[in-house]
Amino acid sequence: MAPRDDDTVRIRPPSVADLVVQPPPKSSSRRRFLICAACAGAAAASGGLGWWLFGSKKAPPAKLASKIVIRTAGEQAICDNHPADLDVFRFDKNPQIMVLDFASLARQGSMLNRVAAMSEKIGIRHDQALDDISLDAAIRAGGDTPETFYYGHDYGAVELRSFFASTDRQKLKLTPDEVWLRRLLEQEGGIAKGDSLGLISIPAVDEGGVTLDMRSTILHHELSHGEYFTNPAYEAWTTQFWAKTLDAPTRDAFRKFLVSENYDSGIESLMANETQAYLMFTPSPDFFRADLVGLDDLTIKNLRRQFREGMPPGWLRDVAMREAR
Asked: For the chain, what are the domain ranges?
């Protein structure tokens, strides 16, 4: 199913039992670009990611049925990939960022839609996972299907830990794909020095109407979220830029834009994280332009310059500087 003209980045569902609150009307500003973002959170525990994510002192299983293959690749190589089912990459510039490249939106939804709903969907409680019936109701109420609920996902270790702890606590049965995700995270328990992870996903070209330009833009946007989740210096600068560099009217302009995209405006870290990704690393004007935020081109140009100048050294700063030329 091709993206609809009246869809937005997020679809805010109406009431689903006691987990969902009544949403405002959906915006109809432009073509749908389903990039999802996770709220920020710094890893607070030490040791292996397997222990830290799932709250258990038990070591991961000594042997897995078969090891999940993970390749290391750069942005262009990942974008050019043609997954037959699901390919997993470590991003070469920052191996703490893991990319799930799905051939099927159905499988992506089966694995990640429930994480998305709990972590970031506006109008849904963030302290517990939806059961299958409530998740389906939330998806359908927003006029979507499990395949079109999101086109791209991104989460930090905090969100993944919270999700699996909640499903355990609630005794919810995981889908086979959620089980696979948990297995992947347990397998990679030592990734990124043990306590830092940026998990992102992208859809294949032609799946659900995705074009090569959309795939490239989604990946570029999501990689910046991966850096936010895994680089404390970049997270700190993003937070400072949002809270101190931007004045109140400019923050309000971005907040209004993000709310129109059905982001949960009550999560300040999410507002900061999405602002950096849209402002700096969403290259297609179909998905981000000054007028969509209610600002002028000169203001956006100056904001981009200010953000670049404050970025900590690293691969993402290099990208921003190169793209500014």
From this structure: 49-231
